Amino acid sequence: MADDKGITKWFGDNLAELLSRKIKTIYNRFDSMNYITTIKRECSNLSYTKRIELHADVLKESLPNDFTKAIKILVGILGEENPEETGMFSNYYWVMPIGKFIEKYGLEDFEISIHAIEEITKRNTGEYAIRPFIGKYPERTMKIMKQWSKSKNFHLRRLAAEGARPKLPWSTKLDTFIENPRPVFQILENLMEDDIKFVQKSVANNIADYLKVNKEAAVRFIKKFHQSDNKGTQWILKHATRKINVS
After folding, report:
1. CA angle, 73 as apex, 113 and 81 as ends, to 5°?
2. CB 22 within 8 A of CB 2
3. How far is CA 136 from CA 22, 66, 114, 158, in A?
4. Torsion of CA 191, 184, 224, 204, to 10 degrees
5. Are the CB atoms for 208 and 244 separated by under 8 Å?
6. 3-class SS of residue 83
7. How many whole angstroms separate alpha carbon 160 and alpha carbon 157?
8. What is the DSSP string of 40-65?
9. Are 191 and 158 in contact (CB under 8 A)?
10. Residue 2 above 70 pLDDT?
11. DSSP state at residue 179
12. Is the pLDDT of residue 1 over 70?
């Protein structure tokens, strides 16, 4: 992702105007004036991450109080899926407040939220939104992420690897599977021969994270694939170990 300074300007009242137009096509009772003026008044000194959270909070105030109704509206504005590996933070940056909305307000509505995260990640990314669900419902969430790792949709496969990273940038550390990374490694194993570079990079970054937080387990996992003649697998291993000696 681009640096904070360069993208902050995307998440001001200009984004509020864009989202308002989209929401109004589905929910004509939406108070776009209050949304836009509130964002304009309160966002000026905030970083882009704080601006995203502000958008989520003001959307919470402006949409129906019932989470099911609110998220149905927000998912309804997503439009066509992103067919490319790129564009998630350029063409679909405006989806990020929706992910934050789920992250903050959807934790008690597991199935509805998981479905919404699936739809978000097909345009932008659900890697941040999924993390509190891993924390609260580890077995249930990892079961779904394992299913994602076998999906025909490469965005979902990528989310399976990226969302479970223990040291995901711009996110809190995920301690749930550091001592026992087996559930995560089962997901990564499904992806070691993935032919999509977008997915391969997330798998490699996940392994690289584990080399920092549980090196012994990560090295054992890596050694299982040393003899593989799959080009994707070898790229993953090379990228994962580029900064760490595992010999």
Report:
1. 75
2. no
3. 32, 21, 13, 22
4. 60
5. yes
6. coil
7. 5
8. HHH-TT--HHHHHHHHHHHHHHHS-S
9. no
10. no
11. S
12. no
Alpha carbon 201 to its chain centroid, in Å, reads 14
Instruction: Count CB atoms within 10 A of the CB of residue 231.
Output: 11
Whether residue 212 contacts residue 168, with contact meaning beta carbons closer than 8 Å, is answered with: no
Task: Answer left, alpha or beta for residue 125, where phi above 0 means left and psi between -120 and 50 means alpha.
Answer: beta
User: What single letter denotes the amino acid at residue 182?
Assistant: R
- Residue 5: the pLDDT is 56
Run of H or E residues at 139:
helix 138-148
What pLDDT is recorded for position 172? 87
Residues 131 and 163: beta-carbon distance below 8 Å:
yes
Q: What is the pLDDT of residues 59-86, one digit of tens each?
A: 999 999 999 999 999 999 999 999 999 8
Task: Write the pLDDT tens digit of every residue in 169-201.
Answer: 988 899 999 999 999 999 999 999 999 999 999
